[in-house]
């Protein structure tokens, strides 16, 4: 048996919290339901955390984890029959009136009271809720299925968090390896190698080509290293400026799509997002043409998003969805075939959702496979660089020793 801390809403709409003993989290949920309450949040109790805040809403910024928790909890409250305004009031009380996220929720609630839709209220919070989130909520409102859309959104955000966590975990070792290797190279070039310069110059002998190249690089870093660092910083800012302009960003997005490893991953991510969003819209009764137009705004890659304009135009002329997608969307062949089968069988909505699930799994596999290839390649390349630097010095030293022996 384990102890679980929970927060729930009782029959009067009041937030209650407590602790119970249960075999599992599902068992704890059932116990709360038997008490006539709707569980909002359940987490396993840890004795060492009893005195610490169990909530992350007191941070100075709003995290993706908070957005996912908010989405899941709001869906749960709406499913229990709470009105949207009442559900937001409950979540505000849970978050704590002084927290940053609570202030955002209060602003959203005030916007709703002013007559705005929930999607418009979310959009007014700036970058807190991205375009994908807002468009999904808008679709749920337009289709009268906000609760279901929020549940799917929560699932999407939770899976995105899992992917990010797995990526971060996988990148920790390569990042440490890269940092150590670059630091070692810089120490060699800016501190160790310059100490040999005077020795080699006193000998008055011509140095091997590899040694002259290494010494030249070391001298450049000593004299103009600050210029190189400034150039890198300016290049980063220039790239950010380029990505802020749609025309330039589209060119970069087009280049990314043709890269051997990155391209397929981007296509699968966008295809999964397209299938899940479109499937949700269609399940909620939104017409196909309008659904595709909404989905276009959820796609991050500008090349694929612009291709959706052609898809919409051809749908207006009476063509099936799979045909214009094949011509303009750059989606994986598997996704296109599944969509075609779904159309032909009259089961497009469930086929889209199933395709999204499969694409998500394949994307994670692709990412793990790519990272597993990057690590040995990085070790090999950095090892060759360090070995080349060391060998260039050893060759010169051996040459000096030979002269001394003569």
TrEMBL record:
GO-annotated biological processes: protein secretion by the type II secretion system
Main location (coarse class): membrane
Membrane topology qualifier: Multi-pass membrane protein
Any one cellular-component term (Gene Ontology): plasma membrane
Residue ranges constituting the Type II secretion system protein GspF domain according to the UniProt record: 70-194, 274-395
Record Pfam families: T2SSF (PF00482)
Source organism superkingdom: Bacteria
Keyword entries, A-Z: Cell inner membrane, Cell membrane, Membrane, Transmembrane, Transmembrane helix
KW Membrane (keyword) present: yes
TM region positions: 171-193, 224-241, 377-400
Coiled-coil features, chain-numbered ranges: none
Similarity comment text for this entry: Belongs to the GSP F family.
Protein name: Type II secretion system protein F
């Amino acid at each position: 048996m384990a102890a679980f801390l929970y927060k729930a809403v009782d029959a009067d709409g009041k937030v209650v919290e407590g602790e119970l003993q249960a075999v599992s989290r599902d068992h704890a949920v059932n116990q709360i339901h038997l008490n006539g309450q709707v569980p909002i949040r359940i987490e396993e109790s840890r004795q060492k955390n009893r005195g610490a805040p169990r909530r992350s809403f007191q941070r100075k910024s709003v995290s993706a984890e908070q957005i996912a928790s908010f989405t899941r909890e709001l869906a749960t409250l709406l499913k229990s029959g709470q009105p949207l305004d009442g559900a937001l009031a409950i979540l505000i009380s849970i978050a704590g009136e002084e927290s940053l996220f609570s202030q955002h929720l209060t602003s959203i609630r005030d916007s709703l009271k002013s007559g705005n839709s929930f999607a418009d209220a979310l959009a007014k919070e700036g970058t807190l809720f991205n375009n994908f989130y807002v468009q999904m909520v808008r679709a749920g409102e337009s289709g009268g299925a906000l609760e279901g859309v929020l549940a799917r959104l929560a699932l999407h955000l939770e899976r995105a968090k899992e992917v990010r966590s797995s990526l971060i975990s996988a990148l920790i070792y390569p990042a440490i390896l890269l940092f150590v290797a670059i630091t070692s190279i810089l120490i060699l070039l800016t501190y160790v190698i310059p100490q040999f310069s005077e020795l080699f110059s006193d000998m008055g002998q011509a140095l091997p080509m590899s040694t002259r190249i290494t010494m030249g690089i070391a001298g450049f870093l000593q004299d103009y290293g600050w210029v190189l660092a400034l150039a890198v910083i300016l290049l980063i800012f220039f790239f950010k400026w380029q990505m802020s302009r749609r025309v330039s960003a589209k060119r970069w997005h087009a280049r990314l799509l043709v890269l051997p490893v990155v391209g397929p991953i981007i296509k699968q991510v966008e295809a999964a997002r397209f299938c899940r969003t479109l499937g949700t819209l269609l399940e909620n009764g939104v017409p196909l043409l309008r659904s595709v137009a909404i989905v276009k705004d959820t796609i991050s890659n500008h090349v694929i998003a612009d291709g959706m304009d052609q898809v919409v135009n051809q749908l207006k002329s009476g063509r099936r969805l799979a045909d214009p997608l094949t011509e303009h969307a750059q989606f994986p062949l598997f996704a296109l075939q599944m969509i075609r089968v779904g159309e032909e069988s009259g089961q497009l909505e469930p086929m889209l959702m199933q395709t999204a699930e499969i694409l998500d799994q394949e994307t994670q596999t692709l990412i793990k496979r790519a990272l597993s290839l990057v690590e040995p390649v990085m070790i090999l390349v950095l090892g060759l660089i360090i070995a080349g630097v060391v060998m260039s010095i050893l060759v010169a030293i051996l040459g000096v020793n030979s002269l001394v022996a003569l």
